[in-house]
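Justification of resources, computational component.

The compute hours requested in this renewal are based largely on the per-chain cost of generating structure records like the one below. Each record pairs the submitted sequence with a full structure-token output. That output is archived, and it is also reused by downstream analysis tasks.
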Amino acid sequence: MSNAAVSGARAPRWRQWLLRLMPWHRRLAILACVGIFSWAGSGMLHPLMSFMQARPATMSPPQQALPLEELLSPAAVLGAAGIDKVQGLRLVQIEGEPYYQARLPSADEPRYWHARNGNDADVLARHAEALARHYLASDEPLAYAGTLTGYKGEYAFINRLLPVARVDTGRENRLRLYLDLYHDRLGTLVDQRKAWFSGFFQTLHSFGWLEAAGPLRPLLMFILLACVMSATLLGLGIFVARKRAVSGLRRWHGWAGLGLALATLSFASSGAYHLLHKQRAEPMPRPFHANFAVADLAAAPEQAWLLPGESLYQLSLIELDGQPVWRAQGNQYGVMDSLHYLSAAGDEMTDDTPRRYASERLDHYAQALGLGEGGEPAMQHGFDHEYGFVFKRLPVFKREYTDAAHTTLFIDPLDGALAARVQDADRLESWVFGYLHKWELLGLFGNNVKHAVVALLGLAHVLLAVIGLSLLRRSSRRAS
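The structure output for this chain reads:
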């Protein structure tokens, strides 16, 4: 009779019951090790990915003063090209020249016309490359590599912006940039190192290799997470029930498992909750698309549209009350930011224009989502616990609703896109994932400390699993 059996026979009934569960601990642990090697192993890389992330020289879009002298009207330029409807229009400066950039229905890439001579201009690549040079603060050779219209591979959903133009550098690390040409925003930067780490992380941590398997992917992940939690709880019970392990390695395994148990349950339970929340997420409503009649744009932008001492670096159309309105953003006297709205004819709009515009766009999405009346829209300029960095867009208009889920909607003022929909379930999941999975509380001691602790915990889980498999192998040899 084995020592474990002898000790089990003499133990109180509750201890005997727990010791009889040891075979189940071993069986579940085999499956749990698959999850641990995948999640803890790749989780160790996440802090390294953040540390090695390629970073731009600036995060702010260009702020070059737009030339407003001797411009033709959009109606004259686009009408001559046979364009009668556009979904978006703005004045941009590319290599010192003014162009109208139009977003046409059913087109992924913008079209350009010279704003002074009206000629159709093939400057998309030049625009993308100039924008990339701005974010890199470099004059190095660059090459436009096409437009991406969906999330895939190295450009994942977390980057949020679509469509985006890809621009490649000639650097040894093959750095490339993904850029939103409609608003001059940076989606992300990717080099070969980040591409490899991201691909490895998505394959192991998100089970990207099962992406095409549909519901099988989350089901397998749930099973493995359940095995991790069950094996951990059984291991704790066996550690308490057994007075003393037979070998020193078993004692090390028991004590290490006890020390890591809370972390293991924290990671696994929050991961399962995160996965369940994603499966239950409701689809977002269809995006709003403006629709402007080119004939209504008979006035050309001019210097008279400026405020005293103002220079504009953004001039784009928004839709308000079904009519085109120019959104003019710049600075006054070089020291003060400016934002004002003008009619299609160039007349100044009233001060309540931003609020009315926000209300219209928010009402569009609230109606699609079946929400009731909301509060007053507010402008949000920074990320917080509710509207986090993951949503990318800033600034945004925000409105809170009084429905049962306490919904808050956030929209992008540039194009009226729904940037985020946050409900009570999202707030709870965000807190659980932030504090129980990513251990954001450690951020109080600095990101380096947080990343180091999380990476060490991942390594500790991998080593614990290796020791457990080694003990299982020894047990199998003795049994044979």
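Residues 74-190 form one domain. Residues 88 and 103 are 5 Å apart (CA to CA).
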